[in-house]
Queue: 4 jobs
Job 1
Amino acid sequence: MKRILIVFGTRPEAIKLCPLVRQLRLSPDAYTVKVCVTAQHREMLDHALDAFSIQPDYDLDLMQPRQTLAGLTARILAALDPVLETERPDLVIVQGDTATTLAGALAAFYREIPVAHVEAGLRTGDMAQPFPEEMNRVLTSRLAAWHFAPTARAAEALLREGTAREKLFVTGNTGIDAVLYVRDALDSGALRAPDWPWLEPGKHLVLVTSHRRESFGPGLESVMRALARLASRGDVQIVYPVHRNPNVTGPAHALLAGLPHVTLLDPLPYVPFVDLMRRCKLIITDSGGIQEEAPSLGKPVLVLRAKTERPEAVDAGTVKLVGVDQDRIVAEAARLLDDPAEYARLTRIHNPYGDGHACERIAEALAKQPAVDRA
Ligand code: UD1
Ligand code: UDP
């Protein structure tokens, strides 16, 4: 029996790992699976845990207002080590590119516990974009013994860096398992979304999120001004669940609160958010996870970044990089809203990131290994 400890801390990691927790727990004879959350995020993490009815075995409750990267990383290392000492897992699973991902992998490495990295191999090749996530990914790949790449392109990046082929599996992204599960449950009525009484009938719903560190300051302000200009067209409603980072809430509220046809919300729990993605005309975001999910719902995405580590949907033509330039955002959004041919071009339902079975593939790969070996 393998003892597996799954470590995560932020909203996107939870959304992408809770389906894996559920999948691995289908084989209680093969694995004992425990969950340790760092709670690098608090409410936003709890929303995602609730959506999948997962109760952590350990909650390190580490979030602090305006936490720094170094302070957070140090606290995670210090708080996780006693958990590893108590649990002595055969394998630690981490996901993605956050401070929790890197510190979780490093803490396990220091205890000589093998690490499996879910969503491995995403690269822009630029350590400044996204910051610090690109570096977190590269370092986590070096620390990991096993690599679950979402796409063939991500696997190729790992092979180029010298990752052993037999430790590398192309699985699809577990985030697609999550979004398809919620979409199907909403369709069947097994899950219900709110009524959204404030949705303006007859307007195009433009759903917005943003939180990238490299855009804080002038970049984010330029985005907010573009959204204000879009709202002033009169035929759209901007709906923006604002990330709790004070570097985001500050400019969002200063530049958008109270404008006609702009609805600022607190971060939404996952099920309502998927419902809004289903209802919207267009998504404007810098989120990694939303770039991956939207093609499954047939929604076009304008990405508020200059570079993406998720180029597959850009190549497939359902996602467009627009950066943070105000005029470019307004022009590209107007093109989609006003040109049905352009809109049709970006709304093919085709998802290069997965088919909803990534967790099964990861479980299969883990089951085939007679023993979990060291890096
Ligand atoms: C983190 C990740 C980023 C990921 C993003 C997902 C790192 C370095 N960054 O960025 O890769 O894309 O999460 O959203 O790991 N806060 C709350 N409540 C919450 C969550 C955050 O109040 O539930 C506030 C706190 O003041 C906190 C701040 O947001 O200090 C920043 O949170 P942090 O996790 O450090 O950075 P994010 O920008 O969320
Ligand atoms: N999401 C959510 N509520 C919101 C905004 C986003 O549940 O109000 C979900 C979204 O569907 C995706 C994930 O959160 O699954 C993305 O998280 P985030 O944008 O914070 O991080 P990133 O993916 O950029 O690392």
Note: Residues 10-12, 40-44, 63-67, 69, 72, 97-99, 132-133, 211, 244-246 surround uridine-diphosphate-N-acetylglucosamine (ligand 1) (CB under 6 Å).
Job 2
Amino acid sequence: MALPPRRKRLFGLLAVLAAVAVITPLGISAASGDHADDTGTETADDTAAVTPAAEHGKLLVCGTTLCDESGNEVQLRGMSTHGLQWYSQCLNDASLDALAYDWGADIVRLSMYIQEDGYETDPEGFTQRMHDLIDEVTARGQYVIVDWHMLDPGDPTYNLERAETFFAEIAAEHGDQDNIFYEVANEPSGVEWPTIKAYHEAIIPVIRQYDDDGVILLGTPDWSSLGLSGGSDEQEVINDQVDAENIMYTFHFYAASHDEWYLDGLARAADEIPMFVTEFGTQEYTGDGPNDFAMTQRYLDLMADKGISWVNWNYSDDERSGAVFEPGTCPGGPFTGTGNLKEAGVWIRDAIRAG
Ligand code: IDC
């Protein structure tokens, strides 16, 4: 499980105090070896519990969930960035500190679009930005998802060569780290599972050349809905699984659009195959419109019950209701507290801190 709530809150408070005291932000991470425990007593003996990655270490897939090396189930909770091509200015020292220490996020998804002015326009530049951001998140003791945010066209095969180049570079550089997740296809659409599965079977060995057990997250049909958005259901994937170790299947939902049909599908799938919710919103599938917090809470309860890790969309100041910050917050902030958060931001920050 993630950090106990009291420790998490206390850690967040200490982080803010440390930052105010102009102690280097990283000085309060696992490296410092000096922080307060649950009782408020200064200790130096439980630093391993300070950051999520230090506490849980390497995570592997065991059965249908993630486990630490002792076999204890671990559920991660965190945030996705918006597209790096548009909202890189929302990812600086202050905002990343806020996400790590004020929000207490276990994991950050780095969302790199391929089209729409993304990776395809400057492979070297985007790869370098990804390396740098992976290092930033790693320095804060969090887990990180490297998200190959293919979206349109929906056939992942269209970007296969680019993906091979990119994931080889990322895995060669970071494959020895304990905190990396590879999400190899954000949201396939318009193609059947066999085509998506063949793509996964092509990209997995590219990563495995350099990282023999880092968890690889596999996109599912109809915008990573396990086929539910297309009127199919989870059985197609369950009956025709990718033959590889340390893989999980992704599921995305937007609570104001996706009701019982989705919730039940996720519940059924999670009993059979390892699921990871790498993207969800409290609003409509556009990432905009009114929030449905009651429905979202039902999803959160299910995911807690089944040990499904999750990541919310998105940590930016885009004008849509699903971007947590008010427009104009980036790059200057402030990013801590709730002063610059939209309604969805306040709600999801509470959900992560409550973990
Ligand atoms: C949306 C962004 C929006 C952007 C659009 C571009 O919120 O600013 O213009 O993408 O394609 C997804 C996608 C994700 C979407 C998000 C909200 O993975 O890229 O972001 N969404 O629509 N799947 C379901 C919803």
Note: The CA atoms of residues 119 and 346 lie 31 Å apart.
Job 3
Amino acid sequence: MNQTVRVRFAPSPTGYLHVGGLRTALYNYLFARKHGGKFVLRIEDTDQSRKVEGAVENLIDTLTWIGLDYDEGPVKDGPFGPYFQSERLSLYRTHVQELLLNGEAYRCFCTAERLEEARRNQLAVKESGAYDRTCRDIPPAESDRRAGEGEQHVVRMKVPLEGEIEFEDVIRGTVIIPTNVLDDQVLIKSDGFPTYHLAVVVDDYRMGITHVIRGEEWLPSTPKHLLLYKYFGWRLPVFAHLPLLLNPDRSKLSKRQGDVAVEDFRRKGYLKEAMVNFAAFLGWNPGDEREVFTMEQLIREFSLERVGKSGAIFNIAKLNWYNQQHLKTKSADELVDLVRPLFEAAGFQAIDCSYLGKIVGLLKERVTTLPEFVSASGYFFHDPDTVDEKGKRKYLTDDVIGHLDTFASRLEAAPDFTPHSIENALRSLSEELHISAGRLIHPTRLAVTGTTAGPGLFELMEALGKETVVRRMKSVKQFV
Ligand code: GLU
């Protein structure tokens, strides 16, 4: 590759970032970073009816959170701006004028009613329902006159009636499409705005985009884009169409089946590292068994050649797994920074940093998402007001309550209170009593935490502190 790589993420601002959009943005970003190129963010906002207030800010915020810094785009700007299509309208008009002059596009004056009628007639004789090309052969002089008189119209591209369009897609290989399945695509709508098809070609060319990496849903549009490149006499970018995202039942991934917005996952406490790792594997793999990747590793290893053709399954269980893997790699300090706001929002104020560090260190192997740190750590902040019912029946027999009392007194009297000293005290007591260590471990946990499962008991007791532990053990009888 001797040309500087320039790629783009070109979302329509619909209000949220779909996981599919994240995957597209990520692959473009990885490709740009790997090849020392530029990653452009372009907002495709030519459909005025779909405008959503705050959508662009939200999108930029989400991309920034996840670590996909763009080099050129809204706010940042750059040498190829503006980066909002709605601010580039004159450019599209200039280029379409060229097509009109060369007879590669034509004005279509058909009214909505006439188009609907033509469509019904076509469908009745089992044709595609595409535009019947009534206006295609209006002589240029007449077309100019009618437009000059202010007659409403759109501009359509002239698709050759015969022949084939062939192109190489990095992921899909050779793609061949006969032109007769293509509609005479509208390029400029009656409101003067371009359609996606015109704008995307003009912008990709004018912004010097070298590789168009986008979802497979755009593959059927690509032949029209190729024709436009040909009409304009422009050099083609490389195309790579990413596989569809599917639900586990292989249906197309949709909002209906649950969360697909990156913001939702962020709100639920998923780590950005996990989202990135998960999105990277929606279509790509490194060719071996490794699954846990950081952004830096992905940049090093990513290649379009290793992106598969077949649909990628979106599996929440897998996302949870990635989240756990990345949680485990975080230091206590990093986790404290991440969870402190969640604890505060849940009403825990002025928490001691080193205490919180111990808590997250103890829980990090046992939780899936960040909010679970909060929900799993109640007993670190207050004495349990109930104990697990089943545990109570199983463990809290009269003799065991007596043993817990003895154990508590010994801990109270001992000079040290470390995991090691606590364990030693427990083991020597169980030997003296001729019972297994387990007969003390489980009831102790129940007394101290109110539950029957959790992190390493001795470490947990140390974190809670001697006074709290002794108090809870001595007062466990209140629950029986
Ligand atoms: N605006 C299109 C979208 O919302 C972009 C398609 C493309 O990348 O060409 O997905």
Note: The first helix runs from residue 19 to 34.
Job 4
Amino acid sequence: MQTITDYLGKSARDNVIAAIVKAKENEAYHALLSLTEERALERADAVDRGEITGRLAGVPFVVKDNFLAYGAPTTAASIMLEHFNAPLQATAVEKLEREGAICIGKANLDAFAHGGSTENSAFGPTLNSHDKTRVAGGSSGGSAVVTALDIVPFALGSDTGGSIREPASFNGVVGVKPTYGTVSRYGVVAMASSTDTIGTFASSVADAELVMDIIAGKDVKDMTTLPDFFSPIGTIEPGRKVGLIKEFMTEDVDSEVRLAVTNYIARLRDAGHTVEEVSLPIVHHTLAMYYIIVPAEISSNLARYDGIRYGKRAEGALTLAELYGKSRDEGFVTENKRRIMIGSYVLSSGFFDAYYQQAQKARTLLIAELNKLFETYDMLIGPVAPTPAFLLGENASDPIKMYLADIMTVPASLAGIPAVSVPAGLTESGLPIGVQIMGKRRSDAQILALARSMETK
Ligand code: GLN
């Protein structure tokens, strides 16, 4: 795969045209919902004329289609926003553009980022980069696949419960979910505000670090952003203490996934780090917490799509209630509706204490358990998902089965800690497997430096 350096110093127009040609050749994967060709070429010419300079001058990239960006509609892969042309750009996109990067297209996702396979896109699924009969993972499936197919050297995604890490693992690329608040969420369609994070896919850790360095930082438009703390570090000292989460290495987990993690650990030990088994018993409850808290926030965030103030307005409604109902029925996919219903239920009076508040209390316990481990360990390690990419349709009709694929990624989301998914080999049949490294809050640079030091390419 090409890295960012391969694009620098070349004709920006050539870079953009090459990326667009490659995107068109790979249309069968359905990784992109739109191309921003015209705007990309204009920007490329401005770079070539020397009017735009920066650390990413002339480097093409892709954004998940829940990021507001110019040059094509921002659909969030939904009928609700099918024709929505953004009046502004997400801060992350603006920051990349200021460094001369050029957005060439918008990537497919599960509608409103609800899902783990990209099968919930209102416009059809994205196919896995290594096996077209399998899912790309999700919800940022399109961004992972364009990176894996080498169409662009990096692509932005959002990760609320695993949506960068899981597709990164399924497609053999690096995926970074930073500490909550590292990157501004301004201009990204909200899913669950307390766990939504913005991060990147890249073909190398160094590239991911560069992109994170550019997009991270305080933004007055997002009150939850942290003052800029992220700065890539040179080399990681040997002697890091790493904890292997034993609940993620049981018999239920695919044996090839476990083997990949075991091999990675052997290499960590060879590099002079200590790896010990640790226990995080509360992980058995994290899916329950996640699938209460996240739908609650979804039901609140999606309330704005009423067909009047926001979103597609349905035809033929006779009353106001009918207009709301029809617009929301036509604009949302089944999974969106399921989450709105669960969310409204757990927030309703009578159930709020029993579900939502209990889940928040349990979340506090999870954070406490993790903090306890981080008193002894610098980082935690484990698989990204219990299996490699599953078959298209395999989990699609069974939401619980689909949710189970998130078991290893939701803890970092609920705790707001950074986590990275790095390629750790292939199964015998050629499917990528990722390893997940997690760290304490704001240790993003450390986990990335460790991952970089372990890269084999
Ligand atoms: N698969 C998870 C879910 O369905 C994660 C989604 C996300 O991170 N956007 O909620």
Note: The two ends are 10 Å apart (CA to CA).
